Amino acid sequence: MCGIVGYTGNHQAAPILLDGLAKLEYRGYDSAGLAVRDGSKLAEVVKATGKLYRLADKTDQGRSLPGTCGIGHTRWATHGDPSMINAHPHVSGNCSGSGSGAVESDVVGVHNGIIENFAELKEKLLHHGYVFYSDTDTEVVVKLVDYYYKKYKIGPIDAITRTMVRVRGSYALALMFRDYPGEVFAARKDSPLIIGTADDASYLASDVPAILKYTRSVYYIDNLQVARVAPGSVKFYDLNGDEVSLPLTEITWDAAAAEKGGYEHFMLKEIHEQPTAVRDTVNSLVKEGRVDLSAVGLTEEIIRSLTQIDIVACGSAWHVGMAAQYVIEDLVGIPVRVELASEFRYRSLPIGEGTLVIVISQSGETADSLAALRVAKERGALTLAIVNVIGSTIAREADHVLYTLAGPEIAVATTKAYSAQLVAMDALAVEMARVRGTITADQFGRLLEELSAIPDKIRRILEDKERIQWFSSKIANAHDIFFIGRGLDYAISLEGSLKMKEISYIHSEAYAAGELKHGTISLIENGTLVIGVLTQSRLFEKTISNMAECKSRGAYLMGITTNGNFSVEDSVNFTVYIPKTDEHFVSSLAVVPLQLLGYYTSINHGLDVDKPRNLAKSVTVE
Ligand code: F6R
């Protein structure tokens, strides 16, 4: 949902900024732009619509834009269509906004987030003689900073903090002021922003991979803080303009983890990283035959006191919640509600004492999930975040955090983070069951063994990926695909369907198999592909019957089932087998062929798998 970068140091800024933006393109890719300053000369702005390579071409890979200080942006449109005029950076002065050249402006800025009261602020600025060239909320913020800067004449920090008090919404802002060459000013509320330093240079970015090539020492700037970024030095201020100190964090993960490493796409690489992501996550929790939640801070006393669990998330993370619901209810017997974060935040769900609200989020920045977390806290619930990005807002605001160890996920469609979330929830369920005495010591030991065996079983599924590749070429012309299953198999169907539609643009739906006959079955016609997930032994016959109902109406059937269930082949046209595991954990295996099916179908259509249209990795707007 937009990525921003900044650099100030001794090197040419534009190539460094472009390099950083390339790592952030997953956050948005409908236009991009740079503003670079050469000493005390005016900032030069260059923008281009479309993917980042067009900006790189336009600036001769950054070489035509001299200067050692600059900011950059890659956009996912919120206010205003994806056009040159709306592309960032935005400027405080009067100009056409359409393109390139030196800007006669006191303030130039880039922004990730959304300013809710921008219309009201624009009115105010129009009244003060400002003229607007774009439809963006960002231009309003940049001009508001300029307004306070000129009105009070006490410098950038003061102008920015006054603006922060006035705006409502979310932002990570990077600004350059004409009177302060060699410096970038940044501010943050509810949108991600990190600042890195090296000996003679400083960097800022929406996400760590953008600067990892240059430095591993980063500051996580807090909400409602401002940073003054100079070469090799950063100062932080609170909303009163008082200087505050922040800890410097060393990033320990490998830069190679954020590169494609020989794979054609990030998504395929990340699908293959699942054994590692799952193993690392399981190993961080399961130690010497125990589940160790000491880092999470969930004590046995807390676990015993729980009477209700609410799981809140969006998209694939919500699908993890749907799967976890069946596992927790079956193993632990605590009632579980799974809510879409975008709905939860506006509902009046009673949250009683003893309720644990679990927010699941890869990015830790999803606006709806963050808002739901805050609502849950306001209503007095204890909160637990299952998050992948260390130091993200949801991780910081929840009472307890369980980090998944999937590493950086770049492809917009999630795979390895989803799988890491699944096993984290499974480990949690098993531990809750042990503490509350709903499973025996023997069952506990066996479940942990099964959990630890999952990475190897995922690896075995990946070794047979060519069969899925072949099948995807057969179904490439499908118009509608239905994914059906019951119980946990329904939760897996939800994720399979989302993987298919978001990257292949083929319409697909997931249905609880028994529900199909209540209306949707009328859509089944000759050749409609129906994919049945058949991993739950007690529901197997029922789902097979539902698939037969589809077949008799002309459907073409694919089934996913556990090794040994060979009778499936009597009923379906194509079968995929997954290794046997405890049925509570089967989602971790059954989802892999479905991820591959979505991936190869997208490739067959020649689509941009890693950056599907209209999407962004981290949805920081409502
Ligand atoms: C789908 C996908 C999205 C995310 C959703 C939540 O492949 O990636 O549905 O799962 O936007 O994102 P996080 O987990 O970052 O809160």
Output the keywords.
622 residues, Glutamine Phosphoribosylpyrophosphate, subunit 1, domain 1, Rossmann fold, 7-stranded antiparallel beta sheet, 28 strands, binds fructose -6-phosphate
What would your notes on this structure say?
- There is one protein chain.
- The protein is α/β, with parallel strands linked by helices and 622 residues long.
- The protein has three domains: 3-251, Aminohydrolase, N-terminal nucleophile (Ntn) domain (Glutamine Phosphoribosylpyrophosphate, subunit 1, domain 1); 266-456, Rossmann fold (3-Layer(aba) Sandwich), CATH 3.40.50; 465-604, Glucose-6-phosphate isomerase like protein, domain 1 (Rossmann fold), CATH 3.40.50.
- It contains 18 helices and 28 strands.
- The chain has a nine-stranded antiparallel beta sheet with strand order 6-3-2-4-1-11-10-12-16.
- α13 (416-435) runs antiparallel to α14 (441-463).
- The mean pLDDT is 93.
- Fructose -6-phosphate (F6R) is lined by residues 314-317, 361-363, 366, 369, 413-414, 498, 502, 618-619.
